[in-house]
Every structure is written in structure tokens, then in C-alpha cells.
Amino acid sequence: MRLCIIGTGYVGLVTGTCFAEVGHQVICVDNNEAKVRQLQAGQIPIYEPGLDELVARNVAAGRLRFTHKIADGVENSEVVFIAVPTPPQADGSVDLSFIEGVAREIAGCLTSYKIIVDKSTVPVRTGDKVRETIHRYSRSKVEFDVVSNPEFLREGFAVEDLMKPDRVVIGVLTQRPVIAMREIYEPFNAPIIVTDIHSAELIKHAANSFLALKISYINAVSVLCEATGADVVEVANGMGLDKRIGRQFLNAGIGFGGSCFPKDLSAFIKISEQVGFDFQLLKEVQSINAGQMDRFLKKITDTLWVLKGKRLGVLGLAFKQNTDDVRMSPAIDLCRRLLAEGARLRVHDPKAMEKARAVLPPGDNVEYIDDLHEVAEGCDALLVATEWPEFTRIDLDRVRRQLSHPILFDGRNLFDRAEMERLGFIYKSVGR
Ligand code: UGA
Q1: CA 23, CA 74: separation in Å to the nearest integer?
Q2: Residue 154 C-alpha to ligand 1 middle, in angstroms?
Q3: Which of 141, 219, 368, 409 has the smallest count of CB within 10 Å of its CB?
Q4: Rounded CA gap, 152 and 264, in Å?
Q5: Residue to probe by mutation, ligand 1, list 149, 164, 215, most atoms within 8 Å of CB
Q6: If pLDDT is split at 50, 70 and 90, which confidence band does 428 have?
Q7: Beta-carbon contacts of residue 246 (< 8 Å; ≥ 6 apart)
Q8: Directed axis angle between helix 261-274 and helix 197-228, to 10°?
């Protein structure tokens, strides 16, 4: 099918590319001309495993192209996906101005029937507003349908999640767009749920909030584990084998971050407030998440006492593994809090150093270290802040010799506790 994707952020770029990969003709639109030129030149602005080859292959095959003109995308497509940012506002609600702006622009270039699909994460009933807006601003008054089709990709695994989705959710008002939507997703061989637009919109916020809840739950259990001498990894393994629970998203640590969970939780709480429901459960999820970082910092100060002037190595700056994204990163938050205590940091991340420099500027107290194996040199302790699997392959004997004291704070439970103790480390992790 001929598809247009408006917005070339994580969701838009990966979705468009994967649609092209399964044979659709895709036009990706972005109003940032410099970014479009970059993409046209084959440069991918984000680190996402496998994406660059996929873009190159589909551009070369003539199935994928980039433009900054919405009209070009809309006129040459049957289905138009909106994948623009929905950033948080100070009161926790979502800024929908990009969605509204794009809806008006689409309206301005409608000349024949189109299906307009919202892929961005939006509050329930946004689809109604998009429909009203397009109707109001469309001069031609041609027919169109608005569909909600939320995205469930994880950064760092986005291509995999898109090519092999657990499910596809399609929210519609009438049956007319269903055939085309099924045709788009047919090559992905996933269960397709066709529902009403409001339910589709709610599925996204409810799913993300539930995953965040799962993480806060295990983090709360980790507090009990520490107090009683249990091991949260054992508890998570024991719980996770129950198919009704599942092992995923039961990794305790310094908490969740990123551009989705914190924002989506606030938005879901706000939406609930607007319909008169106080979603206290989710407020508790937020508070446990914040507490996790406080408890980790306390562990550090309990061991090292005064941080002023201490030299600390920090492994990880991205908000999670396999990404260069540092938005709302717990690792960056940790660094800032250590700096506020007067610590001096030697930091490293396999992919996020460039983006981190913008939010954590290098200087007297922050040194960016290119080689993972040099981070611990001369430090009073080493800290793990992001769950990059390569950190587990570090030469621990060498790290122990590099540290002035063999102390390792593992905020992501990456290492084996018994092994660390056998190697002579003072090893502090989360809930173990
Ligand atoms: C999340 C959802 O997992 C996706 O399904 C969703 O599509 C996406 O948000 C979105 O709304 O766009 P993402 O934010 O990319 O994806 O990353 P996750 O893998 O969910 O991790 C989020 C945070 O939770 C990270 O900081 C990670 O370190 C933390 N986490 C994750 C834990 O602390 N423990 C876990 O067991 C799992």
C-alpha cells in the first residue's frame, strides 16, 4: 500500500522503515528540513540496532523516501500516519499542539478519501479531536476516516518489536478503514485487535502504566528483600515462572526512565483526574520509582560517607540498554545528584556519550571516558547505572586493581553477587 508517516522520531522512522521492509511504498515526512536532508543522505539521527541497514536497503529498493512537505506525503498515499511528539507539560498533561498542527495541515491538502491514523501516544478522545479538526479545516470536504493505532515498540529493540509485534491494535469509528489497516499489518503475522477508538487509545496508556507498575512492584519488593536478607532476583524468578505474572519487567534497579513511562504515567493520572477518578495506585508507582534512586544514593553515602571530592566511575548514561537516548535517564539523574554532593565523575556509555554531553557537560568534575576498561582507574568506587549487557563482560580483576577501594554499586543487578564477593569486591546491588 502507499503510506505516509508524518514525524521521523523513534516511532515514525522505525515504523515507516519496517512498513517499507514488508513491501509497502512509504514516504516519511518531517518539517525539520536539515533532518530530512540527513536522512536522504543515509544518516540516521538515532542509534537503534539494525535500523541503518534497513533504511539503506529500502531506500535503495525505491520503497522508502523522505520529504519535508506534508502535501507530497498526503497526496501520494492512501493512509497517513501521525507520529509526532506529544511532550509532557508542567502539570502532567500532554502537549497536543503538534498533533493539532499536523491535523490542520493534513486537512489543507486532502483531495481524495484518506485514512488518517494516529500512532503517537495520546490521551483518550484525542482521535475525536483530530477528526473534528480535519473536518473543520478541510476545504474540499472529501471523506476521511480517523483510526487509532498505538505503537508498542521499545527503544533499543524497536525493529524487532515492529517486525514481530505481540499484537496490533486498530481503533475505528466505522468499518470502512479496517480492510486497508489489515492489509498494512497482514505481513507482520500478529494478532490484530479491532476495537473502538477510545479503547485503542486507552490500551496504550493502560499497557505502559501497567509495565511501570510491574517495575515499581518489584522495586518495592526489593526493599523488603534488603531488609530480610532475601534476593530480589530469586523472588522475581520464582514469581515470573507463573504464566499469569511473567518474568519480564521484574528487574529491580534504580527505577524506570525514558521518554515514555514517566510521561505516560503522569498523563494517565491526569486523564483519570479529569474524569473524576483519583488513580492513587499510579501515584504510588511514581513515588516508589523516585524512592528507588534515593535508596541507591543512601547506599552509596552509607558506604563512602562524604562524597565531596570522591572520584566515582559511572557505567551507563542512557535510560536503558541498546539506545543512545538520555531523555529522563535515571543514570543522568544519578550523575547530577552525585555532582550535587561534590563527587567527581568518570563516565562512560557505549552509545549515549554524545547525547549525554548536551545534558551533562564535561568539565572539571565530569570526565567522559571512551574506553570502558579505563573508567575505574583511580576511582573510590564504580557504579552501574544502565543495564548494558557489555558491562558484564568487563575484566573485573582489572577493575578491582584500578579502584583505590574495590567497591562496586550495581544499580541494575548486572553482576553475580557470589562471584563479586569471591573476587574480593564490596558489592552493593538492589534488593540482594
Ligand atoms: C516503553 C514500552 O516498553 C513500550 O512497549 C512502549 O511502546 C514505549 O515505552 C512507548 O510508549 O513508546 P521504552 O520506554 O523504549 O518502551 O523502554 P522499556 O524497555 O520499556 O524501559 C523503560 C524503563 O524501564 C527503562 O529505564 C528501563 O531501564 C526500566 N526497566 C525496564 C526496569 O527498571 N526494569 C525492568 O524490568 C524493565
Answers
A1: 19
A2: 6
A3: 141
A4: 13
A5: 215
A6: very high
A7: 240
A8: 120
- Extract the C-alpha cell encoding 56: 539503506
Of 97, 104, 138, 136, the C-alpha closest to 120 is 97
For 312, phi then psi, to 5°, come to -120, 135
The SS3 call for residue 296 is helix
CA distances from 25 to 4, 16, 119 (A): 8, 9, 18
Q: Enter the pTM of the model.
A: 0.96
Amino acid sitting at position 393: R
d(CA 150, CA 267): 15
- Out of 84, 256, 413, give the residue to mutate to test ligand 1, the one with the largest number of ligand atoms within 8 Å of its CB: 256
Q: Do residues 249 and 137 share a domain?
A: no
Give tens-digit pLDDT for 63-120. 999 999 999 999 999 999 999 999 999 999 999 999 999 999 999 999 999 999 999 9
DSSP H helical ranges for 229-320? 232-240, 261-274, 280-304
Same-domain check for residues 166 and 73: yes
Count structural domains, the chain: 2
The parent domain of residue 238 ranges over 211-428
Grid cell at residue 241: 515462572
pLDDT digits (tens, 9 = 90+) for 1-22: 999 999 999 999 999 999 999 9
Return the SS3 of 93.
coil
Which of 144, 161, 190 is at the close of a domain? 190
The residue with cell 535510560 is 319
Domain-located, residue 201 = no
23: left (phi over 0), alpha (psi -120 to 50) or beta: left
Nearest to 114 by CA among 70, 157, 153, 152: 70
Distance of alpha carbon 165 from alpha carbon 389, whole angstroms: 23
Residue 213: per-residue pLDDT: 98
